[in-house]
UniProtKB/TrEMBL annotation:
Protein origin, superkingdom: Bacteria
EC assignment: 4.2.1.136, 5.1.99.6
The species this protein was found in: Dawidia cretensis
Record CDD domains: YXKO-related
InterPro entries in UniProt: Carbohydrate_kinase_pred_CS, CARKD, Nnr, Ribokinase-like, YjeF_N_dom, YjeF_N_dom_sf
Keywords: ATP-binding, Isomerase, Lyase, Metal-binding, Multifunctional enzyme, NAD, NADP, Nucleotide-binding, Potassium
Positions bound to (6S)-NADPHX: 58-62, 128-134, 139, 157, 258, 321, 372, 437
Single Gene Ontology MF annotation: metal ion binding
Cofactor(s) required, per the database record: Mg(2+); K(+)
UniProt family annotation: Belongs to the NnrD/CARKD family.
Protein name (record): Bifunctional NAD(P)H-hydrate repair enzyme
Length: 501
């Protein structure tokens, strides 16, 4: 698991590294500059004209160090320093080291609109993690010019003006790429910050490994290695009973497709047996579309109303295409009154819980809820920003002793203990109807095979996104449809298992 740390934690790590490695503060800055430059030179050749915009703090100090290193590699570099604020010691040290290499262009007033016209690339080193209030005045004016520049904008550590652990206000640099030191910052995972962060990249600056390991956090992001460790190979003498019997309660008149997508994904996720409960109208369709599954037929024609029995199923997945008819609400009530094993709850099943809140408290411990942001809002109420939403998500997971998965780019998975795991696979091609139904199927299939709820959620969300990435590699984002995720799920399993699936 890769940690996401707060600015305060990173500051502590910086100080600890300086004291215990030991390394001089300026040498740590030198390492940060070198890490940035190594990243940068792989992506820009010396024909590109570079502008570096510096503040007078340590982020600005980085900018000056980067300028020196790029000049030594024969890049054409112009350095601007925005006046104001007491320069830090390391900024001063790097200013001295730069003397004679380049003349610093000081900015004391609103710069002309043409200021960055001669730059192919603007490196933003105005402010980093030291930001303590919204940027305004001269800083806002410079940022306006940076954002208007027809150049590739690259931020050092964080885009200037963006707060790493809290909602941001004021002027913020809109970087296309952010090269961040050692660990990603929480703000990078939120949709509202995407216009500022662009694509983020992590470079290692060698902060103290021991303390990095010991630093506690509630926030992680998921890598291929973490997922590989959670995946379980099938045993030689196993049989279909080993892999659970899932019940999928899905589909209504006009929405049998949702049941098909979830069912197909469930089977491809490796479940032993699958029964789908669906209204009469869905029966013939499902038997043809998913011959591997058994079908339990509801007495009602168009929507589900009565589940004969929930006994004997290892897991219930409920929601895709379900509808919210009164009879369906009654059925949900009955399920929640009788079934005590973990469930996967999605789509209309979540909307039913939101509209009948007494049912919410009956969700079996260890369940997985998979709302998209709108469904989450119905469940947990409106929030002013994504930081607040994340806190509510942790609260809901704790309250229900369940895993809450809020879907989107960087889907967030919250454990019952309130720990958050951000998924890193997936792409905008997946923003198309039915992809959520596929996820419900995958998660239900994994839970049936006695993965823990948290492992099922982390592995399942990762596989789902990876299937999307592999599909996109062949088909492109625009043409991706939900069925493609099912088609590419086997390839995703193969990749996660290191070819052993
Ligand atoms: N040893 C270290 O601490 C290292 C720090 N590094 C760099 O240092 C950065 C942090 O540096 P600093 O802590 O000096 O902070 P910044 O360079 O981000 O900001 C400088 C100063 O600006 C002032 N300021 C904050 N908000 C302002 C506002 N709205 N208007 C005007 N002034 C404002 C504050 O007094 C702050 O200390 C990191 O992001 C990273 O780039 C790296 O060089 C790695 C090592
Ligand atoms: N831009 C994106 N990047 C990564 N994943 C995405 C993106 N947009 C959507 N997805 C994924 O696609 C799925 C959409 O689910 P959902 O909103 O429930 O759709 P539906 O109800 O149509 O099935 C989620 O798993 C989500 O994480
Ligand atoms: K910056």
């Amino acid at each position: 698991m890769t940690k996401i740390l707060t600015t305060d934690q990173i500051r502590t790590l910086d100080a600890y590294t300086i004291q215990h490695e030991p390394v001089a503060s300026i040498d740590l800055m030198e390492r940060a500059c070198r890490a940035f430059v190594e990243w940068f030179i792989k992506r820009a050749d010396t024909s590109r004209r570079i502008g570096i915009v510096c503040g007078t703090g340590n982020n600005g100090g980085d900018g000056l160090g980067i300028a020196r290193m790029l000049l030594a590699r024969h890049y054409t570099v112009t350095v601007w320093v925005v006046e104001g604020g007491k320069p830090t010691a390391d900024f001063e040290a790097n200013r001295t080291r730069l003397l004679g290499n380049v003349i610093l262009q000081m900015i004391a007033d609103t710069p002309p609109s043409t200021i960055f016209d001669t730059c192919d690339i603007v490196i933003d080193a105005l402010f980093g993690s030291g930001l303590s209030r919204p940027l305004e005045g001269i800083y806002a004016a410079v940022i306006e010019r940076i954002n208007a520049a027809a150049a590739w904008r690259v931020a050092v550590d964080v885009p200037s003006g963006l707060r790493a652990d809290a909602p941001s206000q004021g002027a913020i640099v809109q970087a296309q790429d952010t090269v961040s030191f050692q660990v990603p910052k929480l703000a990078f995972f939120f949709a509202s910050n995407a216009p500022y962060v662009g694509t983020w990249h992590i470079v290692d600056i060698g902060l103290h490994k021991g303390l990095l390991q010991d630093t506690e956090t509630d926030h992680y992001y998921v890598s291929n290695d973490d997922v590989h460790r959670r995946w379980k190979p099938r045993a030689r003498f196993s049989h279909k009973g080993t892999y659970g019997h899932a019940l999928l309660v899905a589909g209504s008149y006009g929405k049998t497709g949702a049941a098909i997508l979830a069912a197909r994904a469930l089977l491809r996720a490796g479940v032993g047996l699958l029964t789908i409960h669906t209204p009469v109208r869905g029966y013939a369709i499902l038997q043809q579309a998913v011959p591997e599954a058994m079908v339990s037929i509801d007495p009602f024609e168009e929507y589900a109303s009565t589940l004969p029995s929930s006994d004997g199923y290892s897991v219930i997945g409920v929601g895709p295409g379900l509808g919210q008819a009164d009879a369906t609400v009654k059925m949900m009530r009955k399920i929640l009154e009788t079934y005590r094993k973990p469930m996967v709850i999605d789509a209309d099943a979540l909307n039913i819980l939101a509209a009948h809140r007494e049912l919410l408290l009956r969700v079996p411990a260890g369940s997985i809820l998979t709302p998209h942001p709108k469904e989450f809002e119905r469940l947990a109420g409106k929030t002013a920003n994504e930081f607040e939403r994340l806190e509510k998500q942790k609260e809901l997971a704790r309250q229900l002793k369940s895993v809450v998965v809020v879907k989107g780019a960087y889907t967030s998975i919250t454990s019952p203990g309130g720990v958050v795991y951000f998924n890193t696979t997936g792409n905008p091609g997946m923003a198309t109807g039915g992809t959520g139904d596929v996820l419900t199927g995958i998660l239900t299939g994994l839970l049936a095979q006695s993965y823990t709820s948290l492992d099922a959620a982390i592995l399942g969300v990762y596989l789902h996104g990876l299937a999307g990435d592999l599909a996109t590699h062949d088909l492109g984002e625009d043409s991706l449809v939900a069925s493609d995720l099912v088609t590419y799920l086997p390839a995703a399993f193969l990749k996660v298992s290191g070819g052993k699936s």
